[in-house]
Design goal:
heterodimer, A: mainly alpha, B: four-stranded antiparallel sheet, 10 helices, 24% strand, globular
Chain lengths: 240, 277
């Protein structure tokens, strides 16, 4: 059966409703935090703001703490409530989602560390256009995946799944052009490599956002599409 | 006691334990229930149930109080026969034979289809005599043979080690959980093909409950078990298939794995997740 974002607040036990509601709220808070981490890490690079980069790097602990806290809450719900059906899927989806969000947090601090290196090196801004472009793209994916999670929105989740391919090809073409640049100007290798690491981190963030969208489909439909090629998904069946 | 273990010979074909239950073929079914309706006087209790119960599997009936799950269970060994108010329609086939057919003897049907109730009901006699009781009625055995069957039944019910030195003590000296296993041993002694369990653990403490559940799992290699329970976690733990009944109707019947992770219908979802008001 299809479930909606209201489904989890209709238990006879109001306390149980509250516990599940808290899980969702805390997951969204964690999502908001890592989204800001990405945005600030990229701004730190583009604006050459080393203080902001340090702030992002130091803030990663807050992301990690949230992961532990939400996982603890999930463990408690599993132990005390023995949830079934969509309740069980919600708890499992939240546990999986915190793990991806935490990894996104790690990627954001990786971006911040490379931004620091670049700022301190005072080198040129080769590849910044691509970073800006791809970062906007993956941030939108992450935002949409979180919105899909909050609203139990299958259509939006599917859109995110399809978006991942576009990010991958943007990433490949950016890498190719940076590679060419390095060959032409070997003195730039150190700084261009840092930019490449940043692009790599952004591409990984896209993958994690894609995972989040897949959990939404599991949560709402009970279908695990993690290892199915997006082009081979039977979307009509999913939307039924 | 292998010589008496005749029911193990009929091994069911492999059954999927995921997905919808419509896939249970007739050849793998123990009971085939067709259009079964039952009413107590003018009050309908079951309406038009059709389902197959797979052989050598554990099938659980769940549903709110008054949904008809116990009525359905009792219909399977004709416990309603003596209630003149009960009216019945439809068919119940056990291994292909209609259980209400005139040539079917109720006593023999109840030997083949044993029943265990919610409250342990040992007879006021010794442990040994409790298990021997049905045996004496059903067949005449030499004492040595009878002793063997009784040991086998008590072992099968996972009770032997706890009672082997006190077989002639009163059955009332046993704990509730032991009494329930004794009742199961008494039922097993006459070698049923099916064991009907009506809330067999609801009066027991958690450890005794786990022992009964473990027993249910171990018995399914040789017989078909049908369990009625209010405890949904118990159904999820021990059964292979689960039927959800509500208001006398079969709402959803599926492999337990599927029913408890992704039920097809909202009514089922609401019940198993505690949303039914």
């Amino acid at each position: 059966m299809d479930i909606t974002s209201e489904t989890h607040s209709q238990h006879i036990s109001k306390q149980f409703n509250h516990e599940l509601e808290e899980l969702k709220t805390h997951l969204m808070a964690m999502g908001g935090l890592v989204e800001r981490q990405i945005q600030e890490a990229v701004s730190a690079l583009l604006d050459g703001d080393s203080r902001l980069a340090e702030h992002v790097r130091d803030n990663d602990k807050a992301v990690n703490d949230l992961q532990i806290k939400i996982d603890d809450e999930c463990t408690r719900v599993l132990a005390r409530r023995q949830p079934a059906a969509s309740d069980l899927r919600l708890v499992l989806a939240v546990i999986r989602a915190t793990s991806d969000l935490e990894r996104i947090g790690d990627e954001a601090s990786k971006i911040a560390r490379n931004a620091l290196a670049l700022t301190e090196g005072g080198n040129g801004s080769k590849g910044f256009v691509e970073v800006r472009h791809i970062s906007e793209h993956v941030r939108k994916m992450l935002r949409d995946a979180l919105t899909a999670f909050a609203r139990f929105d299958i259509d939006l989740a599917l859109a995110v799944v399809h978006e991942d391919d576009a990010v991958d090809s943007e990433y490949t073409s950016a890498m190719r052009s940076l590679m060419t640049f390095m060959m032409e100007d070997p003195r730039s290798i150190t700084s261009v490599l840092s930019v490449m690491w940043i692009l790599r981190a952004l591409e990984r963030i896209g993958d994690h956002a894609n995972n989040l969208a897949e959990y939404v489909i599991y949560l709402v439909k009970g279908l695990d599409i993690r290892h199915i090629d997006p082009d081979e998904l039977d979307e009509d069946a999913l939307k039924r | 006691m292998p010589a008496l273990d005749h029911v193990t010979d009929s091994v069911s074909p492999a059954l999927a334990t995921t997905g919808a239950v419509t896939e249970i073929p007739a050849s793998a079914s123990c009971f085939e229930i067709e259009g079964l309706s039952l009413a107590y006087g003018d009050t309908p209790a079951l309406s038009n149930l059709t389902l197959r119960i797979p052989r050598q599997r554990v099938t659980a009936f769940i549903g709110p109080s008054g949904c008809g799950k116990t009525t359905l269970l009792r219909a399977l060994n004709r416990l309603h026969d003596l209630n003149e108010e009960v009216r019945r329609g439809g068919h119940i086939h056990l291994e292909g034979q209609e259980i209400h057919a005139p040539e079917v003897e109720v006593a023999e049907l109840r030997r083949r289809v044993g029943m265990v109730f919610q409250t342990p009901n040992p007879f006021p006699m010794s442990i040994y005599e409790n298990v021997a009781f049905g045996l004496r009625l059903q067949m005449s055995l030499k004492k040595r043979q009878r002793d063997e069957v009784i040991e086998w039944a008590l072992r099968s019910a996972a009770l032997w080690d706890e009672v082997k030195d006190r077989l002639h003590d009163s059955a009332w000296s046993l704990s509730g959980g032991q009494q329930q296993r004794l009742v199961i041993a008494r039922t097993l002694a006459v070698q049923p093909e099916v064991l009907l369990l009506d809330e067999p653990a609801s009066a027991l403490d958690p450890i005794s409950t786990l022992k009964i559940e473990e027993l249910i799992r171990s018995l399914k290699s040789r017989l078909t078990l049908i369990l009625v329970t209010h405890n949904m976690q118990q159904a999820a733990r021990v059964s292979d298939y689960t039927a959800f009944l509500n208001g006398g109707e079969l709402v959803e019947y599926a492999a337990t794995d599927a029913l408890f992770t992704n039920p097809r219908l909202a009514q089922t979802e609401n019940y198993i997740t505690g949303r039914m008001g």
